[in-house]
Amino acid sequence: MRTTGRPTGFFHDLFLRNFSSKLAVTPMVLTVLVIFIGCTAWTVTYSFTNSRLLPSLDFIGFDQYVRLFKDSRWQTSVRNIAIYGVFSLTFTMVVGFLLAVLMDQKIRFESVFRTVYLYPFALSFIVTGLVWQWIMNPAFGLQESVRNLGWAGFTFDWLTNRNMVIGALLIAGIWQGTGFVMVLLLAGLRSVDEEVWKAARVDGIPTWRTYISIIIPMMRGTFVTTFVIVGSGIVRLYDLVVALTGGGPGISSEVPTKYVFNYMFGAGNIGQGLAASTVMLLTVLIILIPWAFYEFRPRRDR
Amino acid sequence: MKKFAAAALAAALMCGTAMATDLEVTHWWVSGGEAAAVAELAKAFDAEGDHWVDGAIAGSGSTANPIIISRILGGNPMGATQMNTGRDAEELIQAGLMQDLSEVATAEHWADVIRPASVFAPCQVDGKVYCVPVNIHSNNWLWLNRHVFLDNGLEVPTTWDQFVDSFPALKDKGIIPLSMGPAWTVTHAWNQIFVDIAGPEVQQEIYRDKSVDAVRSDDFKAALQAFADVRDSFDPATQTGLWNEATNLVITGQAAGNIMGDWAQGEFAVAGKVAGEDYDCLPGLGVRELVDTGGDSFYFPKNEDPEITAAQLRLAKLLLSPDVQVAFNLKKGSTPVRGDVDTSTANACMQKALKLFADPTKVLPASESQLTSDTQQQIEDLISEFFSDHSITVDDAQNRFADIIASAQ
Questions:
Q1: Which of A64, A115, A177, B283 keeps 20 to 30 A from B134, CA to CA?
Q2: Ordered DSSP codes for B41-83
Q3: What's the predicted TM-score (pTM) here?
């Protein structure tokens, strides 16, 4: 590259070549190094210590993890998030997609419907939680209203029933999330070229078949995005539980994030809280890494 | 607009005073009665020439405590703060983050005027004084609606056993025997049943000495059994979201009894109920004549500014002055920590408590400060689960409690 008349060399290659783009990317690199990698390393390191209210470097091996997995509240939390995750992911994706398909039929007042469905998402989980807490409260909510209408045997006590309380969380979570999934998938449907539909129609392929065999595979990217957004929302589930059930009755609707928060801040046991968050991180990685290998594997066929 | 102008003028005048130091005070007293009590402290402090900057944090202590601790740890300390007395505070003291108040304490003879001694004990670490107790609250009370019993042809219980025996009859009449509020009130009820049924000696062996054998004793099992009996007669649909709602069920006659601290008295007073006529209060739940002495304390985080340090010491002194003690506690519904002030205005329930405070054998040691909040949280988790899940037997709960105590520090 002598012809350009600029100096070359190691220093130049490392820092000055494409200087402006390197400068632009620096904040992001620092964020990744310090916040993601640095803080994660800190978290994992201190999860092996006996840190209480203040962090300390008094290493105690796997004791925090042993205690964590023996803890009945943690076991309940993990079970709850698994149930909540499977049901809410399946339901919001399936129903969200069906709604998007219906919305895509060039109906009248589409924007009105779209707004109505998206409204719940504009509310914070705290508001959602409080509203559903009133609706589902057995003493003055739905159950009492129906009973007052004359149906005395009607029972809807999910909020106070330890076996069903996870259902109450699901109702509120799904009510809030489905409209959002619908809007995302609707955008995906709209991005499919009209020509594809015309070609399918010419070939005489039934509409349902077109959706399953052509449209859905074409929307792969949109589905992955939606999946990641909904999935990360599930892992972070915290405020809905706090507002709707407070983890009760008893500990029957506890979730991992609430465990981490309680032990780190309320109970002054940083080591225990960090051990729990490390386990959460590992779980996410266990799901994510095989998927990433699959997604980014070298493809010879293309 | 006028108000604003007046406030601006007041602020301008305040800046003009040479002595005046702004001192931010954080606390979580936000309900009507509590706010009125805080206003008394602020008024007295401002009258001395300083300025009380109110830093109320909405929510209960469990919300506010983490905020307060993280501010102190984060190097942004407030001038003074209400804080849960206990092991968290102890850790902050050991880390050298709290102002030593020994000088004021000695000059003002705190050790002599504060009674009972157990109220002052948690403030003393290694012979130095780090906090100011401002009031005494006792947790250990059973509140009963007399009319509920009399109207249904039942005798008003005077002991715990009589009360439990009346459960089936009460349920037949559609009355909630014992009302419960949010999770913390369930743990609160357990703590009272525990100390009253198992006895304070067993409680101390467990909390102070961390004795696993004491957990496995029959006395402790009896307490768990008593709690299980309450659980078995309890309908979760009647559980309320706030503690005062549970107390109100008793006031309105929908429930017969409620286990709650003496602050419940405020609710009865607001409803115009008279102790001994409309309601009864049984210290020690009617099991034994016992009263505990919890309460609120103020801490003073270390500060770099010497002016603030001086103002902190002035406030510390003021909080325990007789006039402030009376004015504050009358509004708060609690008992002054000084034995040498006038308490003749207290009602029948409070008089019972005062009589018990005078007898050291009837005062429970402060147990809250003997367990770390970590262990307290584990116990709360266990008790919450036990109370809502009928499949956990008393033996299971006893074993798990033993595990918690075995690992407690």
A1: B283
A2: HHHHHHHTT-EEEEEE--S-HHHHHHHHHHHHHTT---SEEEE
A3: 0.81
